[in-house]
Amino acid sequence: MIPEFCVFYGVLTFSWIEFLWEQYLTLRQRRVYKTTDKIPERLTGVLDVETFNKAKSYGIDKNSFSIAEEWFHMIISTGFICLNGFTLLWNFSKYCLIETRYYDSEIMTSCVFLLCMNTLGTLMSLPISAYSTFIIEEKHGFNKQNLNFFVKDKIKNFLLVQVISLPITAAAITIVKWGGRYFFIWLWVFAVVTSLFIMTVYPEFIAPLFDKYTPLPDGVLKTKIEELAKQVKFPLYKIYIVEGSKRSAHSNAYFYGFFNNKRIVLYDTLLKDSKDIMNNKTIIDENSQGDKIEEKGKGMNDEEILAVLGHELGHWKLNHILFYLIISQVNLFVMLFVFGWLYDHSMLYRAFGFYESAHPVIIGLAIIFQYVFSPYNTVISFAMTTLSRQLEFQADGFAKKLGLAKPLESGLIRLHNDNLGFPVYDSLFSAWHHTHPQLLERLEAISKTD
């Protein structure tokens, strides 16, 4: 019993240490919100008092919500561990199949188990998601969803998760049972192929189930984007506008695709006159000057959009995407290797109240990946956050070399203001949580001479 005792309380202790650390960081940032009353000197003239106060209020509300949400999740997680949740759900899953010929099928029982886990997770997240959307985001002017849209969105998302996850789970269990001693190699190959396949089909076939994608019509902006892509030899195939304004007023831009079939996607909330563009009306912007951000309305001008895209294309040109992909797959291989080593150790199962002689693959995956790997995942997450911040600086530098420094500065400020981002953060909180440098850090780096 001693090894099981050590594993159980070790996992529980680390979970609470990590949770209290997160709470400490959140409270540090809360103090920054409460005590920062002046606009940073660097943003004087480009951040008005009204927007600053709105950003402060938004930050405090999100901070308060984050504290309550983290306590809720921690209490549920602790209760699940202490009440042997895996055993209870596994037995319930077997009970659901007791009158069928699949009662002794590990694959079918695992699929029912996963469906139960996903259902419970969805039900517990609904009130949190609803409060965030209809109270906090609504209060600060970002929510664009009505209740009907919200419910349909959640149902579609839930069904999609089941359609994808259940066959993958069945295949993974089959590989573990079939693969012998070195099953983790075959499982890793399957995971790599599956992830690349999903990355390929998601933007084309899955994302349009949730949002409307419209080709950017011919005009000044499209011509400028195509010229920028040609300048950096980016194999641009199409440019889309996604109608994210039906969901939220937050804005973004990204690209996707492999080889010579790359697409650029702009959120309609990123664009001025987005309604006219979505309706295929030609917009001619003759005064797109990146060093001016005096317009009160939301959205970027052409030069600022080009600067933001120059940053995103910098990630591609500097091979950041490939770098992330390699790191993630190497990390996955390491985790699957350790899983293959620990998978059949009865002590791990007994530590979480699972005393059956057979060791279901899905239970082993849940215990090892969710709990045993928890300290490792925390270290890796922090390391990746630190790396991401450095790569963001590099991408900014790439856009600067394209001659887009001024519009990039004004674009970042506008994006920050439109999303009510607070300009000041606690250094420790930011280092732990932010994959992107703070706005002031980025502006300082961009303004430095080469």
Explained architecture:
It holds the Pfam family Peptidase_M48. The chain crosses the membrane at residues 6-25, 71-92, 112-136, 157-176, 182-202, 321-342, 362-384. Residues 29-212 form the CAAX prenyl protease 1 N-terminal domain. Residues 216-449 form the Peptidase M48 domain. The active site is at residues 312, 396. The protein has helices spanning 2-35, 49-82, 85-96, 106-139, 147-178, 183-206, 220-231, 274-278, 302-317, 320-342, 346-351, 361-372, 374-401, 405-418, 427-433, 439-447; strands at residues 213-215, 236-242, 253-256, 262-267. It has a four-stranded mixed β-sheet with strand order 1-2-4-3, with helices on one face. The chain is built from 16 helices and four strands. It starts with a helix and ends with a helix. The protein has 450 residues and is mostly helical. The longest helix is centred in the first third of the chain and has 34 residues, at 2-35. The protein is globular, with a radius of gyration of 24 Å.
Q: What key attributes describe this structure?
A:
450 residues; 16 helices; 4 strands; 67% helix; globular; CAAX prenyl protease; zinc; metalloprotease; metal ion binding; metalloendopeptidase activity
